[in-house]
Amino acid sequence: MAADNHGVDLARRLSHVRWLAGGTGSGKSTLARALAERYDVLVYDGDRAERDYVGRCTAHGQPYLWALLQAPVARTWNGRSAREIFESMPSLHGETFGFVVDDLLAMPTGRPVLVDDFRTLPREVSPLLTWPEQAAFLVPTRQFRDRALRARFADGARARANWGDSDHSEALARRLARDDLWDAEVRRQAAELHLPVVPVDGSRDVSDLVEDLAARFRLGCPTAGNR
């Protein structure tokens, strides 16, 4: 009973939070910025916050994240299958979600906070929701993600930062295959928990998706300058 009460209390304390998660390359950050500008919400940027997780993880508490941090960048993607890379993801094992919750509890509560975080899975966030569409999981089609990631990693410096001096074309192929596995996991968990998945295929423009998400998230009226 105490654990149940703790979960209810945590959901209450995070009732101002909206969760935008799902696959990489689905446009989450673009939509988060647009929602922040139009509806005056705070954004928790998971990619930026991840840098702080490094100093907070331990070999015992976050073994997958710890192992990832000890390995050279190239080794993360070379010599392993997409399945092996997927199964070693710290977020698949729930290692980063506690950091996210701690960060959110330390943020102001006077405005809605939008979490833009690839790592969030439906099973983690489900107990913290006060209504199902407080979270939305964006899942891109393979074609949409392929275009997005090829454009992203056309920048050689960015590709080297992610993959070192390995063969970038092979690393990208494994990255795309790994992300297919992540999407399948997101869909599976969301279906089991009756949480919404929003497909992204490029047929809807940003403003349409922003209005859709704002309605799901119950963000109310746009700020005066955006009406």
Automatic annotation (TrEMBL):
InterPro entries: P-loop_NTPase (IPR027417). CDD domains: NK (cd02019). SUPFAM superfamilies: P-loop containing nucleoside triphosphate hydrolases. It comes from the Bacteria. This is Uncharacterized protein.
